[in-house]
Amino acid sequence: MESKKPIKRNPAIVTFSKDHHFALLLVWKIRQGLKKEIEPSRIINYAIHFFDTDLIFHFEEEETLLFNKLPSDNLLRLQAEEEHKLIKLEIDALRNNPEDKIGIENLADILEKHIRFEERELFNYLQEIFSEDELSEIAEAMEARTREHEIAWKDEFWLVS
Question: What pLDDT is recorded for position 34?
């Protein structure tokens, strides 16, 4: 069996990959909640809270610090921006229908697919084409960031046995 080598991430982009770890943890929590047959509203409330306190800022940082350095017609940029819009639309739909079990399943699937795309394709591409100056600029901006991923949430539905 062929083992995959870990992706060597440029330090300027590492923080974005760390953000993805926490977003994948959200996907895992959603799926745990669904598997344990937790009421969809409890899972959806957490997903919306995570989006509002973390993910929306991650999207803005990617769009401002990474995507804006690419031509507006770049296919990878267009795909990433389109997926951000789709995730935002899914969140808005869940806000309007907090019992939508299919909707929260869809959000988990779309978010996981999006993260895998960025990690496996987009970030590798960016590391190849960005200059050292551009990467340094990104690294400086990310070092100044103070946002934490730990969010206060009392209903840990994913831990229910």
Answer: 97
Exposure string of 76-88, with b = 16+ CB inside 10 Å and e = fewer, is bbeebbebbebbe
- Which of the four pLDDT bands, split at 50, 70 and 90, describes residue 143? confident
Coil, helix or strand for 25? helix
Closest by Cα among 32, 29, 61, 50 to 143: 61
pLDDT band at 2 (very low <50, low <70, confident <90, very high): low
- Confidence (pLDDT) at 129: 96
Which is nearest to 51 in space by CA: 8, 5, 93?
93
Contacts of 15 (CB under 8 A, 6+ apart): 142, 145
What's the CA dihedral at 49, 56, 108, 16 to 10 degrees?
-120
Write the DSSP symbol of residue 99: T
Cα torsion for 85, 12, 124, 64, to the nearest 10°? 30
- Residue 8 is predicted with a pLDDT of 83
Q: Which two tokens stand for residue 56?
A: 């929306």
